[in-house]
Design a protein that fits this description.
The protein is mainly α. It contains 18 helices and seven strands.
């Protein structure tokens, strides 16, 4: 306990870290307050009666939005349109030469890509907002009963939803720039955590009424084991030994020591999960816009978290996005070039192209089991619901919710520890250190 108090005191002593934490908490508070502001013209009491108990993907989207989706808040669409836009831009980076050129231009290219992503976010939100209004806001909940998309209320509501998403996107970017951690991931995580207490309380109440205290204990043990396995997945690395040539300058010797390149088993972090879920929301959006037998049937087939097609498609998408995101964030050619330039080499492997091929081969081998395990953890909530766990609480049994919380929390703690160690304070742990995704070796995003 004494060490914990000392750690908090050390965190508070570092002005830059203190300001960043305060900024993060303040911006997240603004987001949470905004999630309770109901759209103008919507009666929250009537809406709550008509939309009590969202099911399927709507329930999952509601968790991502921190409850703003079911409340028809000004932040109802949350950050998901921005995630969808990021997916499209990154996929275009593979096929469109103009975007590939911008990716190689460094900071100036990154700023231009961000501008494209923001513009595409607005376009996607303009598509999703009418779908949200038609599928989630019944006419009875609108004051006056005119819920037409082409009425003044409909047009103004679309504009408010677009503005809300742009503002949430801005909050995420400010957290990344002025706060701690990745702002977009932090916003998603805070929405998930906000839903956990009520889901847990409902599960306890349901089990106690049914006399299932033993089953509740089994659930808690299983949840603990899944959490431990998720932490192991996020933290797992394959260390590649690297030797550096000795250099003698005067009477001093430099280099010659063995170091390691930490290749993460899950180098993509939580992004494959977020990307996969963003695509899974597409059928629901289409069904809201074009109500036909085909779109309704597809939405029903992939809109139920316990259905075979939903889980099979999610599993495949996660594996595909894990490979895709790893390929664009980890560059074996650049790592090999950096090693060669710094006089480093992997024992038994020739510098240059052979080193790049060796690293690429190792990365492919460790990404496969990592992606498969990531996919298994992502679909565990379906098995929890089949076993009788309530849907709200089952979403925390592995799945997107748990993976995002574990990944973001570890990444944030690693950044805090980096600030402490940089100022010669003890880290957050007595021995060892937290391995976050931001740790890097030779410019590799870990």
């Amino acid at each position: 306990m004494k060490r914990l108090v000392e750690t908090f005191q050390n965190i508070w002593k570092i002005e830059d870290l203190r300001v960043r934490i305060i900024n993060t908490l303040g911006l997240l508070l603004i987001y949470r307050l905004g999630s309770f502001v109901v759209l103008p013209g919507v009666d929250p009491g009537v809406l709550n009666e008509l939309n009590s108990g969202a099911q399927g993907l709507a329930a999952l989207l509601n968790i991502f939005a921190g409850g703003a989706f079911s409340r028809a808040s000004i932040f109802a669409l949350g950050i998901m349109p921005y995630i969808s836009a990021s997916i499209v831009v990154q996929l275009m980076g593979i096929a469109v030469p103009a975007i590939q050129k911008m990716q190689r231009e460094g900071e100036s290219g990154r700023k231009r890509i961000n501008q494209w992503t923001r513009l595409l976010t607005i376009i996607i939100t303009l598509v999703q907002a009418p779908s949200f209004i038609s599928s989630q806001i019944p006419a009875q909940a609108v004051v006056g009963g005119d819920a037409s998309l082409f009425s003044f209320w409909g047009i103004s509501t679309v504009l408010i939803l677009v503005t809300g998403t742009v503002f949430v996107m801005w909050l995420g970017e400010r957290i990344t720039e002025k706060g701690i951690g990745n702002g977009i991931s932090m916003i998603i995580m805070i929405g998930i955590i906000a839903q956990l207490p009520s889901a847990f309380a409902f599960e306890i109440s349901a089990r106690m009424q049914g006399g299932g205290f033993v089953m509740l204990l089994v659930e808690m043990v299983f949840l603990l084991l899944v959490t431990i396995a998720t932490v192991a997945l996020v933290q797992g690395t394959r260390r590649i030994p690297v030797n550096f040539a000795k250099k003698v300058v005067g009477n001093k010797q430099f280099g010659g020591a063995r170091q390691f390149i930490p290749l993460k088993v899950n180098a993509a972090g939580v992004m494959p999960i977020i990307f996969a879920q963003a695509l899974m929301f597409l059928p629901m959006t289409l069904a809201g816009l074009w109500s036909s037998d085909a779109t309704t049937g597809i939405a029903a087939a992939v809109g139920n978290p316990t259905s075979f097609w939903y889980n099979a498609l999610t599993f495949v998408l996660i594996i595909a996005f894990t490979y895709f995101y790893t390929a664009i964030t980890v560059n074996p050619n650049q790592m090999a070039e950096d090693l060669k330039r710094n006089g480093g080499f992997i024992p038994g492997v020739k510098p240059g192209k052979k080193t790049s091929e060796f690293l690429d081969n190792i990365l492919s081998k460790i990404t496969l089991p990592g992606s498969v395990f990531l996919g298994i953890v992502a679909i565990l909530p379906a098995f929890a619901m089949i076993a009788g766990v309530s849907q709200g609480f089952a979403l925390f049994f592995g799945g997107t919710s748990l993976l995002i919380m574990v990944g973001v929390i570890l990444d944030t703690l690693q950044q805090i520890e980096s600030h402490l160690l940089m100022r010669h304070y003890d880290g957050l742990m007595k021995s060892g250190k937290i391995k976050g995704r931001s740790s890097s070796a030779f410019g590799m995003a870990g």
